[in-house]
Amino acid sequence: MAPLTKYGLLLAAASLPFAAADGQYRSRPDLSPPLLNITVPVQDANGSEYVFIAPYSDYIQQSGAYIYRKNGDLIWSGIGYYAGFVANFHPTTYHNETVLQAFQGTMDTLHGEGFGQYVLLNQSYEHVATAKTGNHRIPSIHEFNVIDGETALVEIYLPTVTNLSAYGGNSSQQWIGNGLFQEFNIETGELIFEWNSLDHVDPADSLIKLNSSSVESGLNSIDTWDYIHLNSVDKDPEGNYLLSSRHFSTIFKINGTDGSIIWQLGGNHSTFAYNFTFGFQHDARWRDQTATTETISFFDNSADGTITFNNVSRALFVELNHLDNTATIRRKATAPYAIQADSQGNVQALPNGKLFVNWGQAGAFTEFSADDRVIYHAWIEDGVSYRGFLSNWTGTPYEVPAIAAYVEARNTTRLYVSWNGDTETKGWKFYQTADKKNRTQFLGEVARSSFETSLVWKGEGEASEVRYYAEAVDAADRVLGRSEAVRATEFIRIRDRV
């Protein structure tokens, strides 16, 4: 992540075909999810594969964690579940259970760092765990990588007082933004490993020099020199770590015993020779390891707004050959619409060789086929997401469905129902009940096609006596949930959603 003054949205997308959710719901008027602009749709947009993003910007009313169908329809709004600045939101596995993870806290917009905590929610959106790091460290936004369902890798940004004279600093410049990472047990908090960048690398190798801007002055704990900017950590079966440094434009392999650097790709001291360029990368992951080769993937930003390596961002798979110390691109998925993401981004490997790439600061995401054709693409209207993911998910909310009833005209009532986070409802059954006579009348059933479902009921009944409720049913007609019973209220006619 990098400092964001303007969010770098590719406004040319506004002229592209628009397909998005309405963004406002009668049954949940408190929710205002960001819109998605789908420019390359998929046939099975209502399938069980969902988009997980955490959009934010000054222009979004409710920044936070969201789950969408591929057609842009809302599945779940995380407003009220995660607080503050939210990032790195997606499903993971903890104690053999599929859960949601997300960072919540504050964001240092000057450096693109954060201070907060990682919170896990179960499939009913209930709290499972709040991960706490060791050594009084506060995790940053970039990484929370669950290993074997038990431990977590996190990146830490630590303002540190040190002598910066070797890097051109004067006596008043003493603050450096140190980069650390930890592995710890999520349940117990036991610290397993901690790596401190200042113990292993030379800040002089940073592409972002001291005093390169006012926020890199090192004059105080706010304007620290963010010299290394770690943004992802992975672990292999041997216990070693793969570490991405944005400001070194380098990917490191770290010895999991003593913290020494085993090899590095990119930057000023690359172990490998290669005939391509990359830089300011994110999300380095191991994909394959043998006795003589290692294959890694990463999101190649290729620019930071000042320095440009390539004019377009891409997802790269690179093979590292330890026999001749060469690095070779084995796969390249180039951004559509000539997207240049100056910060953020990630690459997700999907089944059948597909890729899902979130273009970070560009505010977009793309699904690629196994032969790297664009098969799905969307823009986040007026926002960006640090990372984005595509995943199956089963949501069974602990809260009851929400219903609203409005008198539209004499003997005509419109009913609206929704269930934030539910993925299993296939249809809604609507009912009317009278308090005094204690009678229940079935009004009708409507198949679910989006976040909110409505029914127009034409019939007699005094608003003071009649209440309405709805039941969610699955494909086998089993009742999954029931709303509260509410009275109908009058409302000013407004254009109904299509």
UniProtKB/TrEMBL annotation:
<feature type="signal peptide">
    <location>
        <begin position="1"/>
        <end position="21"/>
    </location>
</feature>
<protein>
    <recommendedName>
        <fullName>Arylsulfotransferase</fullName>
    </recommendedName>
</protein>
<dbReference type="Pfam" id="PF14269">
    <property type="entry name" value="Arylsulfotran_2"/>
</dbReference>
<dbReference type="InterPro" id="IPR053143">
    <property type="entry name" value="Arylsulfate_ST"/>
</dbReference>
<dbReference type="InterPro" id="IPR039535">
    <property type="entry name" value="ASST-like"/>
</dbReference>
<keyword id="KW-0732">Signal</keyword>
